[in-house]
């Protein structure tokens, strides 16, 4: 049963989400399409560039992303209240960057100022735009529509490029955010598109590693203690007070473990003991791995503890939510190991 997006991602509330968009008609974003023999590798850069561009205009923080062959994943947070703090001029400027309209057809400075002023002078329209800049649905619309038009033009066809609505999972706790981030960052590894994090092209984990390599901090301790923050968009506090180094180590260890239903894993000998940070996220390594590996298969509308899932179910008028049974089983495993 399809639920209104507003029940999973209320437009006036801040939240964390894992979103996925998939292509239709066997379309490929990257690599060589085995049906047509054409290469579409360049489209992955379209997606990555667009994500980062939109993050500078919308009230969002991008924590993780991965652009795959025929779909992409993003873990992000939205903050509609942040958009309410922007000045009228800033709202108009951010909106016109994303939707330039007539602005793109003129270079005359006065004409451009008149277009921006027209937005500010209409209070109803301006408030609508302000709300849209804090909306997850409008962020995804601004991401998907231009990509679809560019791909259709390149393919010489028309019609849908994306498979209906984007899939959205609410991440109800910070532990769920971190597990979803790890799942997204390891997607190319599990699909056997890469065997190291450094070679996982068009992912946030590669961007984090590249930034650390190209712009090292002044001291070693600064590098070790750098907080885990978004890779693009609004600045935010570190998740769970976690450092970026701890997160990278956690993803590395998680990728070294074999997934029974996937082909790939990181090219490294699996360590016997997990990193210390894992124990703040789960009471047992199996508990952590099941949550990461089951991000899409064991959960549906939301990810979190059994209590958080049941609270979300009650909020949207359900008596149950997929993932509760698994979370209760993990709770039992934790009690048995204590």
Automatic annotation (TrEMBL):
<protein>
    <submittedName>
        <fullName>Transposase</fullName>
    </submittedName>
</protein>
<dbReference type="InterPro" id="IPR036515">
    <property type="entry name" value="Transposase_17_sf"/>
</dbReference>
<dbReference type="GO" id="GO:0006313">
    <property type="term" value="P:DNA transposition"/>
</dbReference>
<dbReference type="InterPro" id="IPR002686">
    <property type="entry name" value="Transposase_17"/>
</dbReference>
<dbReference type="GO" id="GO:0003677">
    <property type="term" value="F:DNA binding"/>
</dbReference>
<feature type="region of interest" description="Disordered">
    <location>
        <begin position="201"/>
        <end position="222"/>
    </location>
</feature>
<feature type="domain" description="Transposase IS200-like">
    <location>
        <begin position="12"/>
        <end position="187"/>
    </location>
</feature>
<dbReference type="GO" id="GO:0004803">
    <property type="term" value="F:transposase activity"/>
</dbReference>
């Amino acid at each position: 049963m399809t639920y209104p997006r507003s029940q999973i991602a209320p437009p006036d509330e801040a939240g964390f989400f894992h979103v996925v968009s998939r292509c239709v008609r066997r379309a490929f974003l990257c690599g060589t399409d085995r049906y047509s023999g054409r290469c579409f590798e360049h489209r992955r850069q379209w997606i990555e560039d667009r994500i980062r561009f939109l993050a500078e205009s919308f009230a969002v923080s991008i924590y993780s992303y991965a652009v795959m062959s025929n779909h992409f994943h993003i873990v992000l947070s939205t903050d509609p209240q942040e958009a309410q703090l922007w000045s009228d001029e800033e709202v108009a400027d951010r909106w016109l960057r994303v939707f330039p309209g007539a602005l793109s057809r003129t270079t005359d400075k006065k004409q451009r100022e008149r277009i921006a002023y027209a937005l500010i002078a209409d209070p109803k329209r301006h408030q609508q735009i302000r709300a849209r800049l804090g909306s997850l649905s409008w962020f995804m619309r601004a991401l998907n529509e231009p990509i679809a038009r560019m791909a259709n033009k390149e393919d010489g066809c028309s019609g849908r490029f994306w498979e209906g609505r984007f899939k959205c999972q609410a991440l109800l706790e910070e532990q769920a955010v971190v597990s979803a981030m790890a799942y997204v960052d390891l997607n190319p590894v599990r699909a056997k598109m890469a065997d190291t994090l450094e070679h996982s092209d068009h992912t946030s984990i590669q961007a984090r590693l590249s930034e650390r390599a190209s712009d090292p901090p002044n001291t070693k301790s600064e590098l070790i203690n750098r907080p885990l923050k978004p890779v693009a968009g609004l600045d935010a506090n570190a998740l769970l007070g976690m450092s970026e180094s701890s997160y990278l180590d956690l993803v590395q260890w998680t990728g070294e473990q074999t997934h029974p239903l996937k082909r790939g894993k990181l090219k490294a000998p699996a360590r016997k003991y997990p990193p210390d940070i894992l124990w703040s996220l789960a009471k047992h390594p199996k508990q952590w791995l099941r949550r990461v590996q089951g991000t899409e298969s064991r959960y549906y509308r939301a990810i979190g503890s059994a209590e958080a899932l049941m609270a979300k179910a009650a909020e949207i008028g359900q008596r149950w939510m997929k993932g509760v049974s698994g979370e209760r089983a993990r709770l039992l495993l934790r009690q048995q190991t204590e």
